């Protein structure tokens, strides 16, 4: 039980919500770059209990991928940064009612969300993957034959493996991510499905280098989100992301917080081109 509790702690928020709750709120006025610079403060809505995106470290400092990216954006604008904690359930409302200027809050681009917010171009990928012991030759569905596969019950990775796994695959379903990871570490299963961000979190519990990403099932794209009428602001954010990807700064953030190399991403946050893609082999 202690092991499971510890895993739950380091995996807190590893999964991300796929749906946006219907909103009956009046939207605040469109935000502009000039108004932000004039005010001298960039108000960013970020999740603060989502390792590795936003969380408080052992020294009591708020940090993480989205937090550092927000600080980078504020520096680019020449203003101070003010982080407003949000959750997956209230982040869109916080944006639309004017509590924040922008969301950097593990906001994956999905069709339902595109209807209520305006996305800049993506700044990172967020993959659903399969994880196994380092060195094991597992490159796709066919390699799962004869293996024990653990998945959280009812998740995208559960649905995917149920459809695609070859005969002879033993699928074991668990109640949550923590129990699934515990089964992997305890040797009850050979490979598990989860988010790419779980790899460094597993290393915190099991030790570094013991487990690695085997193959990607699906890839979503995270982006800044602004109010629907804030076209100029969204364009600035897209240009910012383009410049920081080109300079290598966002790639360095990805390597630091997620691990590995940042994959190619769409150059827009709008339309079908920005929606999640299947990576199933």
UniProtKB/TrEMBL annotation:
Q: What keywords are assigned to this protein?
A: Signal
List where in the cell it is found: Cell envelope
- Which residues are in the Solute-binding protein family 3/N-terminal domain? 41-261
User: Entry's SUPFAM superfamilies?
Assistant: Periplasmic binding protein-like II (SSF53850)
* InterPro entries in alphabetical order: SBP_3_CS (IPR018313), Solute-binding_3/MltF_N (IPR001638)
Primary location: other
Q: Can you list the GO cellular component terms from the UniProt entry?
A: cell envelope
Is Signal a UniProt keyword of this protein? yes
Q: Which PROSITE patterns match?
A: SBP_BACTERIAL_3 (PS01039)
- Span of the secretion signal? 1-29
Family (UniProt): Belongs to the bacterial solute-binding protein 3 family.
Q: Name it.
A: Amino acid ABC transporter substrate-binding protein (PAAT family)
Upper classification of the organism:
Bacteria, Pseudomonadati, Pseudomonadota, Alphaproteobacteria, Hyphomicrobiales
């Amino acid at each position: 039980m202690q092991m499971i509790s510890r895993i739950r702690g380091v995996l807190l928020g590893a999964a991300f919500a796929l749906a946006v709750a219907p909103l009956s709120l009046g939207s605040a006025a469109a935000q502009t770059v000039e108004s932000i610079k004039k005010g001298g403060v960039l108000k960013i809505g970020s999740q603060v209990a989502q390792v590795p995106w936003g969380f408080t470290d052992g020294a009591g400092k708020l940090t993480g991928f989205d937090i550092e990216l927000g600080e980078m954006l504020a520096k680019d604008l020449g203003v101070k940064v003010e982080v407003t904690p949000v959750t997956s359930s209230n982040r869109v409302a916080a944006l639309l009612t004017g509590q924040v200027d922008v969301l950097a809050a593990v906001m994956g681009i999905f069709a339902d969300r595109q209807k209520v917010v305006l996305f800049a171009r993506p700044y990172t990928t967020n993959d659903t993957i399969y994880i196994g012991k380092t060195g094991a030759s597992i490159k796709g569905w066919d390699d799962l034959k004869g293996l024990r596969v653990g998945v959280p019950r009812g998740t995208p990775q559960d649905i995917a493996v149920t459809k695609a796994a070859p005969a002879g695959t033993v699928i074991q379903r668990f109640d949550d991510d923590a129990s699934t990871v515990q089964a992997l570490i305890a040797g009850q299963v050979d490979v598990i499905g989860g988010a790419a961000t779980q790899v460094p979190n597993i290393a915190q519990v099991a030790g570094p280098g013991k487990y690695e990403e085997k193959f990607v099932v699906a890839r979503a794209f995270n982006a800044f989100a602004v109010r629907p009428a804030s076209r100029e602001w969204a364009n600035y954010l897209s240009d910012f992301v383009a410049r920081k990807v080109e300079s290598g700064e966002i790639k360095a953030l990805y390597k630091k917080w997620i691990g590995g190399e940042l994959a190619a991403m769409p150059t827009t946050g709008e339309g079908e081109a920005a929606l999640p893609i299947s990576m199933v082999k």
